[in-house]
Amino acid sequence: MKVLVATKDLAVFDALQGLTGLEYSEALFTGQIYESLPGARLVIVDFDDLVEHPYSVNMLRGILSDSDVPFVSSEEFLAEPEAWLNEARRLGGDTTELPTKRTVAFVSYSGGVGKTVLAMDTAVHFARRAKLPVALLEFTYGESAVGALVGAQIPALFELATQPDVDPVVWNGVTLVPMDYDNSRDLSIQLLGKYLKDVMREHVLTVIDAHWPHALIGAVRDEIDRWYVVATPRPDAVENAEKLAAELGPKAAIVLNQKGGMVDSLALSGVERAVELPTVREADRWNGELGKRILLHTYGQGTWGQYEPKKMFADLRKRFSRSKD
Ligand SMILES: Nc1ncnc2c1ncn2[C@@H]1O[C@H](COP(=O)(O)OP(=O)(O)O)[C@@H](O)[C@H]1O
Ligand SMILES: [Mg+2]
Description:
The chain has helices at about 10-15, 30-35, 55-65, 75-80, 80-90, 115-130, 145-150, 155-160, 180-185, 190-200, 235-250, 265-270, 290-305, 310-325, and strands at about 1-5, 25, 40-45, 70, 100-110, 135-140, 170, 175, 205-210, 225-230, 250-260, 275-280.
């Protein structure tokens, strides 16, 4: 049985020493605890002892509260260790591998290629399936697409970054940070960077919808693990995407969106793309058809596949919904 020990209290280690059938690992970084959670049956944690890297203590506390693994302070544990270990044996834990912390940006020179749709569908689908914290940030000009989508007046970047008591809106499980460039342009990159890094510390996945180039992107540029350069099969869009991918370097990957039929194949021969996405009906209903494929690429089949329903159930569901039409 695996027990996670996240405390500086050495008495806990004394209490666990020599117990048979028990293996414990130490973790004081919030990220270590998050990553070691799968398979753990009990977490002994003193939140004051933790190093907030890369997640905040608050965020980790939320993850633990939502998980099936019991957690307990060192003091509570030491008062009755046997009772806690029995409880841990009884409950069983969860072995689902958790997605690693990631920041991914959808980016392109051209408009209308699908950045907003893909960013939104990826974020909403992540929230729906993994039920873990996910944020959506915008680096766009003009009216915020995210703000327009939600309809109601919601706090945008300027207000969020300058007023500590204003919190972002959470919509369909996604924390939204809309861009209001006309206001936010007056803030320094440093201040924006500090605020947005704090947002990222509260989320497992951060998705960014970005126009390229963008005057404020320097605020998060170093945090981005993956640039998804989005293109449609038009020759000029593909050419632009290849140029941008080269400019962004090894973290860039081309996403070919709205791939149609045979006509496209000539323009596309020789283009190295990581993901191909079809034209779907109701792209702005966020049913996850597009986001799922992005998440499989980001996290791999092994990790993200765990969160998708098995094919048999998906087929049944499809048949069921068709028969309702
Ligand atoms: N895979 C897709 N299937 C169907 N429609 C799509 C797809 N991707 C994008 N669209 C549609 O194309 C239009 C432009 O997409 P959008 O995400 O707003 O582009 P961008 O943010 O790059 O300007 C929108 O109407 C959107 O619904
Ligand atoms: Mg857009």
